[in-house]
TrEMBL record:
<dbReference type="InterPro" id="IPR002347">
    <property type="entry name" value="SDR_fam"/>
</dbReference>
<dbReference type="InterPro" id="IPR020904">
    <property type="entry name" value="Sc_DH/Rdtase_CS"/>
</dbReference>
<comment type="similarity">
    <text>Belongs to the short-chain dehydrogenases/reductases (SDR) family.</text>
</comment>
<dbReference type="Pfam" id="PF13561">
    <property type="entry name" value="adh_short_C2"/>
</dbReference>
<protein>
    <submittedName>
        <fullName>Oxidoreductase</fullName>
    </submittedName>
</protein>
<dbReference type="InterPro" id="IPR036291">
    <property type="entry name" value="NAD(P)-bd_dom_sf"/>
</dbReference>
<keyword id="KW-0560">Oxidoreductase</keyword>
<dbReference type="GO" id="GO:0016614">
    <property type="term" value="F:oxidoreductase activity, acting on CH-OH group of donors"/>
</dbReference>
Amino acid sequence: MGKIALITGASRSNDMGSAICRRLASQGIDIYFTYWNAEEEWPDKFKKEILEFGVRCDGLYIDLSDRNAAFTILDSISNTLGFPTILVNNAAHSTSDGYVNLDAKTIDDHYVVNMRSTFLLCVEFARRFEKSQQQSGRIINLTSGQDISSMPGELAYAATKGAITAFTKSLSIELAPLGITVNAVNPGPTDSTWMTDEIREVLAPKFSMGRIGLPEDAARLIGFLASDDAEWITGQVIHSEGGFFRS
């Protein structure tokens, strides 16, 4: 049986999650994606696109703020495609705040998706992996470079995504004996669903490589980390930013 990957947050054609799905499918990996706030026809259309790679594909509509989301997702994928050996925690919640506007609800809304759902998916994946007798597994979390730069005006997002870095490094030590690598990828500012022309104009000169990052750039790195060639890489946060500078 081939590899199976679980990717969260694939809800639109040009988002990071969808690019990751395409990349892994191109490597012959079966795809199971979660989505939220997608257009009505999107899931079926995307499934058909992924099936054209010659792999199996299924998806699940789910709100990751549900405290039982991790268990629901892993039960569902196991019942449809089989147990995954690759987990990519891509989904995220993000709204602007700043110290004037930050309140309990804003913090909680970020926490339940960016931290709780990510952490619970990681550990439940590992628990089930251990029982599955699989030999090699991959966990890849998405962060946003909070360990190398500040994000004023996005305090809740920066704090909750920054926690993923610490979690990734600590979890990697626990799971290494099981054959599971745990890494994080910071894709830098990426031209996906959130970027406007105004933002592009400001950011473009800051990329040393001469262009703004695309979802496919991070997807290629994630494809490598999911491969057998990356079996010796764990506990790392890899910054894939095309020479982006923050001055």
